[in-house]
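Example record

The entry below shows one chain as it appears in the dataset: sequence first, then structure tokens.
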Amino acid sequence: MDLGLTGRTAIVCASSHGLGRACATALAQAGCTVILNGRDAQALQEAATALRSDGATVRTVIGDVADESVQQALIDAGDGQVDILVNNNGGPPLRDFRALDAEAIHAGVDANMVTPIRLAQKVIDGMIERRFGRIVCITSGSVKAPVPGLDLSSGARVGLTGFLAGVARQVAHANVTINFLLPGLFDTRRLAGVHAFNAEKNGVSVEDAAASARDRIPARRFGDPREFGDACAFLCAASSGFITGQSLLIDGGAYPGVL
């Protein structure tokens, strides 16, 4: 399926690993020039090399996306034309809410709410002027179904969703969309950390914790990051301009609600 993205420029934050890398890969395969970002220089280079070997045009910006200078470097790497922004950032480590002091709470909100808002502010006027823009924010399935230990992540991402859902309605007239992808349990490094947390909390092995989590998913498996990347590319497609302000939950049916 031609997504109509050939020649577009996409920033994908935190894209040297996991779901971010999957999104970058799908957008590169759709014909985008992709700007990768990550804090691990070796992992970032490996991701860029893999995409280039498949014929993609790739640029890289190393550093923490919460850093204003890194944000500006990402914008500059787009040569003044950023058509797609995929907001992504690692969530705060799992911990009991009682252990969160003010500094930790502010850091979590900054990373998972303030940073993606700031990036959207930096690119959105150009998108409006060119009459094309796609912003996709990777949040979490815990936005709809909070998970113990992920309280800070859930709270910051709910805040981001509420903030940008309102912005989405203000820019839709210019063919600029803002949507949210809510991953459930995908086979990533982050999920391995969740299993380890639950294993220690419940006094079981990591393998048993993983099996228990998998058994609670109706699909009876963890998600493949490639599936997530394809969903991201779809939301960025030229033909997806009538989809905005939406939260797409991708969790194998784990969330039991109808809304």
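Notes for this example: The mean pLDDT is 95. The radius of gyration is 18 Å.
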